[in-house]
Amino acid sequence: MRFRWHNWTAALLVVAVCAAIAGGLVWNRSRRVPELTERIHRLPAGTSAIYLDLESLRSSGLLALLSGQNVTEDADYQAFVASTGFDYRADLDSALVGFANSEVFIVATGRFDWKAIQEHTRRSGGTCRNGICRLPAATPRRVVSFVPLHNSMIGMAVSSDEWAVSKLQDKVPNQLPVPDAPVWAGALGEALRRNESLPAGTKLFVKALGDAKVATLGLHAGQNGAELRLRAECATEREAGGLESQLRGVTDVFRKYLENVNQQPNPADLSGILTSGTFSREGAVVTGRWSVSRSFLEKLLSGQL
Length: 305
Description:
Layout: H1 10-22, H2 36-40, E1 48-53, H3 54-60, H4 62-67, H5 75-84, H6 88-91, E2 92-100, E3 103-110, H7 114-123, E4 127-129, E5 132-136, E6 143-150, E7 153-159, E8 183-188, H8 189-194, H9 203-209, E9 214-222, E10 225-233, H10 237-260, H11 270-274, E11 278-282, E12 285-293, H12 294-301
Antiparallel strand pairs: 1-2, 1-8, 2-3, 3-7, 4-5, 5-6, 6-7, 8-9, 9-10, 10-12, 11-12
Helix pairs in contact: 9-10
């Protein structure tokens, strides 16, 4: 079974791989890896983000699930591993990925061999100057730039601006909270309202969340799969009540649709997840939970969805 790189889920893996390729910078500012909240403040203000804690994924077995699939990896990444010995499955600890307009920003932590990666950068047509290194991106007229932020942490940007990574050198206030989950996504409501590139079946939920100030969705590991947990903060209790009603209504729409076509929710696809949602509200905060089966995760990671 081949992994289909056009699949939206593969983007997370590709981002982690890009972070690995850009990694390897060693800078002895401090031996303590900055807390996640500090890393979030490196992202430009208003940036939407995805976070992957690979250390937790290893211990929970979710990363092993990915490794167990017959994944066809990118040829550039295979060449990178061959020349440097770096493998994200073992050497990358975390990747915080930010999206702002057409730019992608990454703050990654792990173990890197800078000398080997520096040599790989030169062989790949890249350059390093004033502490910032750059490589041509796979997409035309785009550049991968990266800079050391810590002895085991690097910053990276994919942009038409070859110096875009310099934005990660400053700390700015960021409203994204930090869910207690190994994988999570967070965004301001205004960013969700602009997002059109979403998997089928999720657009109604995201449209409803566009009314929130900020929303996060975390993936928590469980015995038989995982659970998605939503936290959406609204400006007022009244708006939170409206959001809760919308989420319940969208869930009912999916359930009734399946009833009308004489189908049962399938735990192995999105129908099983979307119809499993339960919601509650406390003050101006709305929470939601969805069950994610192991069979769904297996199909997701093998590129069948």
